[in-house]
Amino acid sequence: MTTEYSSPPHLHDGTTVTGLMAKVGLALVPGLLIYLWWFGSGILIQCLLAVSAALLCEWLLLRVTGKPAMYLKDGSVIVTALLFAFSLSPFTPWWITVLGISFAVVFAKHLYGGLGYNLFNPAMAGYVFILLCFPAQLNQWPSVGVTPDFSDYLAIIFSGHMSTGIDALSGASPLNHMKSQLNNMAMIPEIISNPIYGTIGGRGWEIINTAFLAGGLWLLFSRTIRWHIPAAVLGGLFGCSLCLYISDSAIHVAPFFHLFSGGTMLGAFFIATDPVTAPTTALGRVLYGVLIGIVVFAIRTWGGYPDGFAFAVLIANMFAPLISHYTTPPVMGQEHL
């Protein structure tokens, strides 16, 4: 009698990479719509540029490595491109967008062997690459109350200027403005009197983060992601900011400002939850999320960058294998080293 052996899992639950990516893309739609409503069509142009360049790079790398073209259809590179585009200012020049997503696909994904083998989150690796190389170009955001039309965005993105001058349309993001004013010894009450701030966060950013929160909660309820990482990221960020806010609210912003400004909800629910670069155990995911929340807070408070979410994710990615190792229960009868 011949006995056949196979490795677990023996039963497939029907989950596919394509299906997971479709759900993530659908969950991004509320954030995209609010982003379009608040900042205009610039984000849509950035998404189209990033997706087009990512698909081209993916196709070229699949040809070079001899892998089947079917991997192009799993949707993973499209989600990577969308997350990368959402991290950019809508004024970002087209060549920077193309360069950043190309770095993400070529160096952060395929250099490690492709989907499932990458050590770092590709979208955040690409974003950090261009942020370090071109910080000035990524720090221009539409001014409060001014929404450039489609032709304005085309001129700014593809030519770098427009007839009315970009300075008439651009300004600092709320996180950037808050950091620069605090560095100039201003107090929180006078800083938040600026019209770029809303009720609990940056004006407009509170609504955008709420939309990404809604999409993230849908991913949780549909069991596309698990609760450990998002809850730990938000809890770590909230806890750190609450401690300093209680100690001196004149120079430390309220915890909800951190949660509803910048890319907090996008990062917590869509970026940090990447299953390839996160730990595999429940306890490990909690520790991983807390680490991200603490690093985000540290960079926003004492670092040289206004947000820091991308840096926090990449730093946590480095520790993910170690966290998984020390939080994996030992096999019965064996000592866990």
How would you describe this protein?
The protein is mostly helical. The protein has helices spanning 17-27, 29-39, 42-65, 76-86, 94-109, 122-133, 150-159, 174-183, 188-191, 205-221, 228-247, 255-259, 264-271, 282-302, 309-327, and strands at 141-142, 170-171. It has a two-stranded antiparallel sheet. The longest helix has 24 residues, at 42-65. The model has no long low-confidence stretch (mean pLDDT 88).
End-to-end Cα distance: 39 Å
Helix tally equals 15
Q: How many separate structural domains?
A: 2
Strand content: under 5%
Determine the fraction of residues in helical runs and give it as a percent range: 55-70%
Largest sheet, if any?
2 strands, antiparallel
Mean pLDDT: 88
Question: Could you tell me the radius of gyration in angstroms?
Answer: 21 Å
Q: Helix and strand string, N-terminal first?
A: HHHHHHEHEHHHHHHHH
Structural class: mainly alpha
Name the overall outline.
globular
Q: In total, how many beta strands?
A: 2
Strand arrangement, largest sheet?
1-2
Q: Which runs of at least 5 residues are low in confidence (pLDDT < 50)? A: none
Compile the SSE list and pairings.
Blueprint: H1 17-27, H2 29-39, H3 42-65, H4 76-86, H5 94-109, H6 122-133, E1 141-142, H7 150-159, E2 170-171, H8 174-183, H9 188-191, H10 205-221, H11 228-247, H12 255-259, H13 264-271, H14 282-302, H15 309-327
Antiparallel strand pairs: 1-2
Helix pairs in contact: 1-4, 1-10, 2-10, 3-4, 3-5, 4-5, 4-6, 5-6, 6-15, 10-13, 11-13, 11-14, 14-15
